[in-house]
Each structure stands twice: as C-alpha cells, then as structure tokens.
Amino acid sequence: MASCIFILLISLIIMRDCLSSEAKVFMVLMDEEPVLSLKTEQVYARSDRDAMVYKKKIGVGHDIFLESLLQKDTYTKLYSYTHLLNGFAIHIESEEVQNTLRNATGIRAIHEDVKMQKLTTHTPQYLGIPAGVWKNLGGAENSGEGVVIGFIDTGINPEHPSFSNPSFRGTLKSSRFKGNCSIGERFPSTACNGKIVGAQYFARAANAYGDFNSTRDYESPFDADGHGRQVIHTASTAAGNHHVPVIVNGFNYGYASGMAPGARIAVYKALYTFGGYMSDVVAAVDQAVEDGVDIISLSVGPSAVPSGPSAFLNVLEMELLFATRAGVLVVQAAGNGGPTTSSILSFSPWITSIAASATDRKYNNTIKLGNGESLSGTGLAPPTAGRVQLPIAAAADVSNITAGILAVESCQHPDAFIRYLVSGKLIICTYTFDFEYDDAAIATLAENIKNIGAAGFILRIDPDIGPMLVKGTTMTLQVPGIILNDVEASMALWEYYTSHTIRGRLGQALVFNAKARILDGRQAIYTGQAPVVASFSSRGPDVNNAHRQTADVLKPNLMAPGSSIWAAWSPSSEGDPIIKGQSFALLSGTSMSTPHIAGVAALIKHKHPKWSPAAITSAMMTTADVNDQFGSPILAQSTNALVHATPFDFGAGFINPTRAMDPGLIFNAHFRHYVKFLCAVPGVDDKSVRQAIGFGCPKKKKPWCSDLNTASITVSNLAGSRNLTREVTNAGSANETYNVIVREPLGVEVTVKPKAFKIRGNGSRRLRIILKATEARKAYSFGEMVLQGKKKHTIRVPIAVYVSSSIGS
Predict the structure, then answer these.
(1) Tens digits of residue pLDDT in 48-86
(2) Does the UniProt entry include the keyword Signal (predicted)?
C-alpha cells in the first residue's frame, strides 16, 4: 500500500518551513577539482597515496577558506566532500554568515540542506535465477562473488543469519574495495565478517539540528530502526546468504536467499528513526564511491519533484551522476505514489529507477461458519485449535459501550471488553475509517485480542464506508484471525451472526449461537500468474522541464517483485509491534523491488566485470518481459481494475535475469553523454550546468534530450518529425545479423535505418530512427523497436511519444 509505514522509499522534504530562520546547514560547492574529476583522475587514479594526499589538501583548503572568511564561533564545518564533489557542509547560525558565504569568491554554488524521511523466500525461483543464472556462476553461494553492493539507509544488524559468514566463504577477492568498519554501540569489530565488508555512519547534520538521539539512534552502523526496517530487509533481498530459514512466531515460512548470495555488503548509515538530511546522505554516497562499491542501492528521492530544469541539477542528483562516472551503478526506488500518473520520484537518466510488481505467491485464509458457508479473506495467522467451532461475538456485544462505539467496534481499547464474555470466543471487529487514517491498526487489534483472552478475531469491513483496500493484510499474527477484504463477505458474516444471536428486550446479546473456525492462513499458494504492476508503484511520465514538457526520459526503467516480499528484519526494530522481535518481515513497496534489481545487477557484474553502469541497465531493459508465459500483455493495477501496462507503468518490462546475462546488444552511455543531455534540457543554460558540475556545455550541443543513447526512446513533444540516433554494441565476441521490427505508436510513423544489419563481435553500429507525426493525439502513445538476431537474441526498445502537432497541420 502506498501509505504503508514499512515502505522503504526515502522522501526529500524541503526544510524552509520547518527549520528556524537562523540555524541552517548548507552544502557549498567549490570551483576547484575533487579527487575524481576529468582533470585529476588520470593522475590520482594511479596512486592511492597521491589521491589521499590530494583529498587531505582539499579538506585543509576548506578549513583555510572558512577561517579566512568567517569568525570561528559563527559556523561548524560538518563534512568536506572531496571524492566526487569538491565542497563542504556547514552549519551556520545567522543570516549574516549566509550572506557572507553567498558573496564569497571561489564558491560555485550553495544549496540549503534538505530534510529526508524514510519513504525472499520465493522471488529467486519466480525470476528463474537458480537454474538460469546461479548454475552458470558456480552455484548460489558464489553468485555475485567479487561484487560489493553499497546500501545507504538506516544501518544493519550484523547478527542476522542472512549476513553471517559461513566457514566456506573466503575473503573478498576484489582489491578495489577499501572500506572501513566503524565500531560502536552494538557493532563490534567482528561485525565486518567478510559478508559485511564495510560499515560507517553519518550523522553530523542530524546532530547539528538536534534530531539525533544517541539513546535511540545508536552512534554506530547498527540498525535501530530495522528501513534496513531497512538496510536489513533490502540487503538480504539483494545479497543475503542462501537458504536461510524464515521463522516467524515459531512457524517456518520457507527459506530466504538474496539474488546474489555471493556478493558482499557495505553499509552507509545516513538515516535514523526520525529520518535524515541530504548533507549526510551526500557524504555517505561520496564515501561509498571512494571505498570502491560496485553498486549503490538507494531509497532516496524527493517527495515532490520540483518542476523546471533544476530537478536534474540538485546536489544529490549531481553526486549520483559523478558516482555513475566513477563506474558505480545506482539503483533507486521509483516511488510509491501510484497509480497516479506523473508520480515518479526517481527521474534522472543516469539512475536505474525501479517499479514494483505483485508475484504469484498468495496468502489466503478461510473461515468456516456454523451454517456450512465458507468465507475467504487474508491473515497470516495460525488456525483455531482442532476442528472445533467456536462461538462468535461482535465486539460491541461484549464491551462497555461507554468507551465509544467506534473505539469498541475497531477493537482498539482492551479495557472496554468484558473479560468473562470474550473468553474463548471469536470477536468480530470492524474496519472503519480510523484504520485508514492511522488512528487504528490491525497490529493493535491483534495484540488486544491476545491480551483479553479471546480465541481469535474476524475483521469485517464496515459496509457504510464501501469497498476499499484493507491495510496491513500481510502482517504475521500470533493469534487466529482473518480479514474479510470485501463488503460481500463482511455482510454475509454479519447476517449469519445477527440471525443466530438471541437478544433481550433492550437489544443486549444474551446467547451467542453463531459459531465458526478459522483455518491456517500461513500456507502460501503459488498460482503461476504473471507479474502485475502493483497499485502503489509510481508511474511516469518523467518530470517537467521549464517549458512544462515532460523530460525525454523513460521512467521507471524496469520492474521487479515488490509486493509482499519476505526478507530479513531487525528484532530490535521499534516498528509495528506485530513484527517487533522477529527476524523476518513481509513488506511491500518499490524499496522492496529495488534490491531485486541491485542483486541481479551484481550477477551481471560478476559475469561482465568491465561493463559500465549503462551497459548493465541496458542488458536488463532490452531483455525484460512485457508478456506473460502465454503471450498476453502484463497488466497493471489501476484504481478500480486491471489494465494493460504501459512503459510508464513498468519501464522496459519485468526483469528476466537469465536473458539479461546474455543480452546480445547493449546501449552504452558515459558521463559526456549525460552532460550533453543536461545541456539539451529546455531551460537549462551553460551557467546552470557549470554551477552544477564545474564546467559548461560543449560548443556543439545535442539538439534533443531524446538523443541520449538509452535502451528506450521517449519524445515528450513531437511536432512534425524528429531524427534520432542510437548506437548498439555487440556484447559478445561472435558476429551476428539483426533484423529490425517496429510496432509504431498510434499517430507516429517510425522508420529505422538500416532495416537489417550485421555487427561484428564486440563491434558497434549506429541506427538512424525517424519519427513522423501523423496524428496529434494530445496524449502519449506507445510502441517498440525490436532487433531480432539470427542467434536468438531479441532486443526490445520501448517507444513513448507525445504528438503535439502532426506534419501538415
């Protein structure tokens, strides 16, 4: 659910309205080069010692600059950014100091800090990884070996079995990673055990604002929140150990495994129980890239993307652009604002943005009534004892109404119940609007039922509020319980109950003749159905530019499982009381789909260690599935129905790891291509690019953002015609011949030249793509370009076009 408190996506919220007008943190970018730049990388990449000397020089230079400009008691420098950006984060207490900084020479740009808040047993098999990938990479335990995934979130619990280091696991073979292990509270030196190869925490901005609480948030990489509530969950999905038993409330739900069990984990804790700040996150990204991670799994994105070109030029987006230039693939959750259009929160083309799908695993439950009728619902709960039917009682009939009828019916106040009346009975509770607005919770309901000595509960929907998606149906429960998800089942239960309850003259219940038993809701059912775009998953198109056109970028890029995902959990988490103390949790959100892609990317990196981030993303996109196993189109959950999914729902499609390992052709892109993209964004000028990245646009600009060499084609404003180019590279060593097949978007004529071509092993070939508008539909339409190889490679490229005016109109 979009509003679920377990969703791992982190939102950026502008602080101007919630901070004091005086004390603030700013991120300041300097004119000089960082350690890794176009001018310095050839020099300092050769020698770690030289790089460290230059890094220290940058930090000292920041201190000298500030000391010469400001009085010592008027500021505190929090960080020196040295690796990807040359700059610093500074905490200042007066507007006078702000003005002094803004007028100083040598400063390229100043950005006010932004507050940030926190936005598998079956999925490896569902994705075909064991037979299609692990088998060819030396087995599950070795798959992903040599690859380090960096997680920037709330920390990690090193004691969890998903992150233990079995005796057969050797040391990290890659010499590229050089991260440190910061010891601290609940994080001893042994926590970095070979599986976890690095762990650090960043909290200087959080401390400066007074939000960090050392008794709650831990001054160490340990996860007190469990968003790791959940590096722990996401890290175990991407790279958790193979075949770890998932035991919750004493019941074994199966065995969990990460996508790449052989990959290593580096943790960068920059978020806490209260959230976090961008300056801390930027410092974490900078450190992760300097340490040498291969992939960053990120749950950071704006809660509301600002319109205009500045969306691509904020400090975090620039930091991630430079991370990509350093060879690090950044995978980011698309957001949980679906099914609303234009709700995408991960928008830059150098980032791989992930949508979420439901899978074929279902947890259903059944209640058998005394009249022989069976009602279906949900609830991962144990059954009532034996095959005995138990009496049913409505909460209002066994409570003191003085507590308030709504509070009584929702079973949120245990003191309202009359204990001797509830003992041994199944209590009917009512799902009201209070549950929708977080004034009531299923977790509280279940805990109350346990504490008052009832046999279990039945949660029905109040027919007065109509059909709705009940929140919290995937919680693991310790007491028998069932949630009736639809109004019809709820009405059938109530009709049976009222007809079998004998009441007195004043309407009080005297005899409870209605009976039922609840079956076991913990047994999974595997339907074999195709993935479906989850309703909460954010949709495209991408952000608006200064001309109110959406960007020529396809977002999201890909889709992976993200609904009801089992993964590791921190027992010390202060999250939902139903999950507290458990080692695994069943969560939903695009933050659950993101580590699936990070793990698959690690498998690809294992096989193709020299591939660029763009090449890995291309391999996953061009081989993704858009149809189910029967050839029918993948569907998407909308507000009231299932509809055919479009590229704005699932990007290039649903991840197919086996085919992604051998994609045939790839679309590559590098830093200079992204700079040309920025320079082509309407409303972005040379000065704004220079302030963002340190240098201006090339003399010969690309005329269109749509020229970026991605594995997709998006044109947000087609007026007449447009000529585009794409360059494909043979990912294999053998020659191959390809034929071009085009399915044209409505209102667009598409011509690709050449229509057939032969490409040498490891060679490249340019394609010219001509789009001609034939009908101004004033809406996006979708098609695809398919490159069909003679050696059974199929490369799919989605096409999304908005025709604003046709030729001759």
Answers:
(1) 788 889 999 999 999 999 999 999 999 999 999 999 999
(2) yes
Whose CA is closest to 539, among 779, 345, 799? 345
With beta carbons less than 8 A apart as the criterion, state whether 511 and 487 touch. Answer: no
Strand-pair category, 584-587 with 565-568: antiparallel
- The Cα–Cα gap between 506 and 652 comes to 64
Q: What is the pTM of this model?
A: 0.88
AA identity, residue 446: A
Instruction: Report the candidate in 618, 617, 634, 625 with the shortest Cα–Cα distance to residue 656.
Output: 625
Which sequence spans correspond to the domains of the chain? 10-115, 117-360+531-660, 364-523, 665-805
Q: Are 650 and 533 in contact (CB under 8 A)?
A: yes
Residues known to be catalytic: 153, 227, 591
Residue 727 CB contacts under 8 Å (≥ 6 apart), including other chains: 667, 668, 709, 764, 765, 766, 767
CATH number, domain 665-805? 2.60.40.2310
- What are the E-state strand segments in 47-170? 75-81, 87-92, 107-112, 115-117, 148-153
117-360+531-660 homologous superfamily: Peptidase S8/S53 domain (3.40.50.200)
d(CA 431, CA 470): 8
Q: What is the DSSP track for 718-783?
A: EESEEEEEEEEEE-SSS-EEEEEEEEPPTTEEEEEESSEEEE-TT-EEEEEEEEEE----SSEEEE
What percent of the chain is predicted at pLDDT more than 90?
56
Give me the CATH code for the 10-115 domain, please. 3.30.70
Q: For residue 371, what pLDDT band results from cuts at 50, 70 and 90? A: very high
Taking alpha carbons only, the member of 476, 575, 384 closest to residue 121 is 476
Rounded to a whole number, what is the distance in angstroms from the first to the last CA of the chain? 45
Q: Are strands 426-431 and 390-394 parallel, antiparallel or unpaired?
A: parallel
Backbone φ, ψ for residue 255 (5° rounding): -130, 130
Q: What is the DSSP string of 611-636?
A: --HHHHHHHHHHT-BSB-TTSPBPEE
119's CB contacts (< 8 A; 6+ apart) are 7, 8, 9, 10, 11, 299, 300, 301, 303, 333, 335, 336, 345, 591
Right CATH number for 364-523 from 3.50.30.30, 3.40.50.12780, 3.20.20.70, 3.40.50.720?
Answer: 3.50.30.30
Q: Are 681 and 515 in contact (CB under 8 A)?
A: no
